[in-house]
Specification:
By secondary structure, this protein is mainly alpha-helical. It has helices spanning about 30-35, 45-70, 75-85, 90-100, 105-120, 125-135, 140-145, 150-165, 165-175, 180-199; strands at about 5-10, 15-20, 20-30. The protein is built from ten helices and three strands, in the order E-E-E-H-H-H-H-H-H-H-H-H-H.
Length: about 200
Amino acid sequence: MPRVTALRPARPGRVLVELDGERWRTVPVDVAARTGLAPGLELDRQRLRTLRRELRRSEAVAAGARVLARRDHSEQAVRAALERKGIRASEREEAVATLRRHGALDDERFAHARAAALADRGLGDAAIAFRLERDGIEPASVEPALAALEPECDRAVRLAARRGATAKTARWLAARGFAAESVESALTGVADEDRLELG
């Protein structure tokens, strides 16, 4: 049976494991701690299985963290990315749970930020709701994200003022997911402002 003869610091967050005086491999420090690697420990079949399982878990969490490194994603998007990387379903779910528990993954936060970004790009509530649901956000989380936005009518008035109160603008707003009432009030609001300015 191979025996752990030394654990040496490797690059940050990793430790080099030596078996029978020979370099074997580097593993994350947390994996070494969870599996109880220590000098003098014999690596029997059961301990190797445990080590392999912990390495897969750690790799799944690291892969999920890399997905989230650039920007926020929904849980569904992280699961899909982990699946594309060939990570098993059980490890995917554990990684998502770990990332959620540590606050790196939060569908509510993602829904609010994504809704605000889409509203800034000139989309109406229907289009925002559609995109959030397509991103894997539950309808129960979509409503609070929409409620936190500036009212759709106000956004439509601002866009219509910039583009002009024309039939073309009305079609453009409707195509961007604005409700008929918002489109109508936007065009009426812009026309009223123009009348006030002209006196």
